[in-house]
């Protein structure tokens, strides 16, 4: 039996890249959708480099990259906010995934990789993604009682009921509050806030126009808006995207917003809530389901072969 070697070509034209994306994307999560990633890409207009694997004139997969000009490396199309990345290959061709990584050359930084194949699962782990199966709970209070344990349950229950006793007014989809969310998010997270990144606020002003089920809710206490949350639903999964809140007399607003999102997601028929990557100091404690992500990096003479030898050790 003759083993044919895979060949690679590269695409940089936007329309051709979109064709390849639509052909190979599994369309399972919001990060698999072209319009989502394109919205994060378009303000930067980085160089595109979609690496296409070809066997006997048949396209079998694609590795979709863009060149991050400030940092000077190739990364996944859409940039650092994208999760659930992978080399997309047709079923039965997983053994060629390593060839795609090697074809990327250097400098390259690929993170939040889902271990769909044995090789990717062997790569160093990255910070994971966190989610909750909503079918197990009727509402936020049920989640507290059935899912949390011991002192955590006691303290969470007390904080949640304290805020409810203040009778917050919940205002839905008052879209001018998005600007205040940006401001409050930067106040809370400081330089770690993604809204300090160039064009990030423009991106969010645009993504809320995409045809998905959006939810912006604001919490008013005594007529003043002091907490705002943004999320959306895609294929029965609710994505908890961004929050902002004031630090002050009312404590545990961040916790309350997470719990309120459980309630809101249930109301609109979501079966799962995606709380995003990074533990943020609470997701593991809450016992959320963790998706293991992996990382592939190659530059400054760290060749793919050297990288793999490090991984194997």
Count of DSSP H/I helices: 10
Number of strand segments? 13
**Shape field:** elongated
User: What sequence of helices (H) and strands (E) makes up the elements?
Assistant: EHHEEEEHEHEHHEHHEEEHEEH
Report on the structure:
The protein has about 325 residues and is of the alpha+beta class. The chain has ten helices and 13 strands. The chain has helices at about 15-25, 35-40, 95-105, 120, 140-145, 150-165, 175-190, 200-205, 255-265, 305-310; strands spanning about 5-10, 50-55, 60-70, 75, 90, 110-115, 125-135, 170, 215-220, 225-235, 235-245, 270-275, 290-300. The protein has an eight-stranded mixed beta sheet. Strands 1, 2, 3, 4 and 5 form a five-stranded antiparallel beta sheet that branches. The two termini are about 35 Å apart. The model has no long low-confidence stretch (mean pLDDT about 95).
Q: How would you briefly describe this protein structure?
A:
The strands form 2 sheets. Strands 6-13-7-12-11-10-9-8 form an 8-stranded mixed beta sheet.
């Amino acid at each position: 039996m003759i083993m044919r070697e895979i060949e690679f070509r590269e695409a940089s034209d936007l329309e051709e890249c979109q064709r390849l994306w639509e052909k190979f994307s599994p369309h399972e999560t919001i990060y698999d959708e072209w319009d989502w990633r394109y919205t994060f890409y378009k303000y930067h207009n980085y160089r595109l480099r979609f690496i296409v694997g070809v066997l006997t004139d048949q396209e079998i997969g694609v590795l979709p990259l863009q060149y991050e000009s400030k940092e000077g490396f190739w990364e996944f199309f859409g940039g650092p906010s994208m999760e659930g990345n992978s080399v997309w290959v047709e079923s039965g061709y997983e053994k060629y995934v390593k060839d795609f990584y090697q074809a990327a050359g250097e400098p390259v930084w690929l993170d939040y990789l889902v271990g769909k194949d044995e090789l990717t699962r062997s790569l160093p782990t990255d910070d994971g993604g966190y989610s909750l199966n909503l079918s197990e709970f009727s509402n936020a209070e049920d989640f507290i009682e059935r899912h949390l344990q011991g002192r955590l349950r006691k303290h969470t229950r007390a904080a949640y009921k304290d805020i409810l006793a203040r009778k917050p007014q919940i205002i839905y989809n008052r879209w001018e509050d998005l600007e205040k969310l940006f401001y409050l998010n930067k106040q809370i997270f400081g330089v770690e806030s993604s809204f300090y990144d160039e064009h990030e606020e423009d991106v969010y002003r645009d993504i809320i126009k995409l045809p998905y089920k959006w939810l912006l809710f604001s919490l008013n206490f005594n007529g003043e808006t002091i907490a705002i949350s943004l999320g959306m639903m895609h294929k029965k999964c609710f994505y908890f995207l961004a929050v902002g809140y004031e630090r002050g007399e009312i404590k545990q607003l961040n916790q309350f917003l997470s719990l309120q999102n459980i309630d809101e997601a249930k109301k609109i028929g979501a079966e799962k809530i995606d709380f995003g990557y990074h533990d943020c100091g609470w997701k593991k404690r809450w016992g959320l389901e963790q998706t293991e992500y992996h990382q592939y990096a190659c530059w400054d003479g760290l060749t793919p072969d050297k990288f793999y030898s490090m991984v194997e050790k």
